[in-house]
Amino acid sequence: PKTKSSTNADPSETIVGDALLNQEAYSFLATMITRYGHRLAGTPGNDRSLDYLQKELENLGVEVHRESFQHPGWVRGDDRAILIQPENRPLRSITLGYVDRQKPVEAPVALLRSIDLDTLDPKALDGRIILVPSSLRLNQAKYLRLANDFGVCGALLMNRVNGGQLLARVANHDGEAPPFPLFGITREDGLRLRAQLEVDIPVVVRLETLSQIKPMSSENLVAVLPGESDERIVLGAHFDSWDLGQGAMDNGLGVAQLFEVARLLQKHSPKNAYTVAIVFFNAEEWGLWGSRRYVEAHRESPIRVMVNLDMVGEITGVNAMGFDELVSVLKSFSSRLGALKFSRNLANKTWLGGDHHPFILEGIPAITFYAPIPAEDVRYYHDAADTFDKVEPTLLAKSSAISALLIHHLANDTESDYRRYSREETATLFRKAGLEKRLIQDGNWPFADIPPNE
Fold first, then answer.
1. How far is CA 196 from each of CA 37, 86, 108, 285, rounded to the nearest angstrom?
2. Neighbour-count burial for 335-368, b at 16+ CB within 10 Å, e otherwise
3. Per-residue pLDDT for 233 more than 60?
4. What sign results for the dihedral spanned by CA atoms 140, 146, 148, 151?
5. SS3 5
6. Beta strand pairing call for 93-95 and 182-185
7. Cα–Cα distance between 415 and 454 in angstroms, integer?
8. Cα angle vertex 351, ends 350, 352, to 5°?
9. Kind and range of the H or E element at 367?
10. Fewer CB atoms inside 10 A, N or C side of the chain?
């Protein structure tokens, strides 16, 4: 498809040159993180960082507003996991989000060997704290059954990455308190406990939880570049982070990239065929709350396509997310990138877990990038070492430039036929991607009334 710009000159070259030479995204991110630190929802760091972002966007002349929403919140307390036997010492640990305040639990530890609970011996787990290998994925329904049918009173979840790291995360995406305390522990501690259990050395652990679930109000920040049409391109990234580190990679990169796209378009292509809405989603780490609430509030809005930036590093490819109509559009875009052309073939596969997901559930086409962060850095995701020193300025500048070019392309492509999928088509999309079973297990399958296509 051809692309029609609302200006006589194509601004692509000036967009790229500005991004690479001035590196404003890097400077913005450095200032925000240095001044305000992590951005856990409901904390002063989140509030002050959002204030700073809004001020900087307004200084660019960009139209900005906030959209408040309610969601289940959580306040981290002084929680501890303490090894009592065969030695007495604290375990390096982190409570999972939505673990609520409970009385201390001290109990023997047993290894969980399978998530097929029907194969387990209840007597072996009764009154135990379970040690969960990183290969086993549990959900709220299984936690409830482990508590009610097996007598489990706590869980230690081993990290999948070595080096004494932790993995901050939530117990579930619905804000429900699990029936017993859940702690993430380091891989090394987990492996040692497992080795002791396998040679019948008794292991006893004490769990103390003071964290608390509480209702919260958070805000999405929305920057709007009005177009000739009210039909809009939504560019999104989650604003919040976990509290162990600084949230530089997850998702300071996305926050800086969205800021830079707003700056570049406002400067070089402020008026496009379609409106561009740049949305900084809050409370994503606790269950995609910002994007879920945004979609609920804008369900009837004329959204043409959504682009999600979450931990975008070196961009090597692009994904049409199962929407066949986007394939030719993205091929056309890639062919115009010159030296920035994607090295990876275009993909067209639906995946879960990001702020694009609530949009896809509504049948709204979505786009994500394949954009790895160097392995020696991304290993610190959700841990204390997710810090600004790991952000590489050239990588950030290039990814911001490509993101701005894609949004400009989509915002001026008046010849491609974008459309919102029906519920039946959306159900088929998820089934085709093999995701129906997982969504059902997680209690998040909204298409139970739609039978599979024969």
1. 39, 9, 12, 34
2. eebeeeebeeebbbebeeebbbbbbbbbbbbbbb
3. yes
4. negative
5. coil
6. antiparallel
7. 34
8. 135
9. strand 366-370
10. C
Distance CA(243)–CA(382), nearest Å, equals 8
**Cα–Cα distance measured from residue 63 to residue 227, given in angstroms and rounded to the nearest whole number:** 12
How far CA 443 is from CA of 307, 377, 447, in Å, comes to 26, 33, 11
Closest by CA to 398, choosing from 17, 30, 20, 25, is 20
Output phi, psi for 8, to 5 deg.
-70, -40
Report which residue type is found at 440.
I
Spatial CB neighbours of 269, under 8 Å, sequence gap ≥ 6:
5, 6, 7, 11, 15, 408, 411, 412
CA separation for the pair 334, 319 (Å, rounded): 12
Q: DSSP character for 360? A: H
Note the pLDDT tens digit of each residue in 396-413: 999 999 999 999 999 999
Q: Is the peptide bond before 86 cis (omega within 30 degrees of 0)?
A: yes
Task: Quote the tokens at residue 17.
Answer: 């040159």
Peptide bond before 251: cis, by omega within 30 degrees of 0? yes
- Give pLDDT, residue 278: 98
**DSSP assignment letter at 249:** I
Per-residue model confidence (pLDDT) at position 442: 83
Report DSSP state, residue 178.
Answer: P
Report pLDDT for 10: 84
Q: Are 237 and 403 in contact (CB under 8 A)?
A: no
Would you state the pLDDT for residue 8?
52
Q: pLDDT tens, 201-223? A: 999 999 999 999 999 999 999 99
Q: How far apart are CA 428 and CA 447, in angstroms?
A: 10
φ, ψ for residue 29, nearest 5 deg: -65, -40
The helix/strand/coil state of 55 is helix
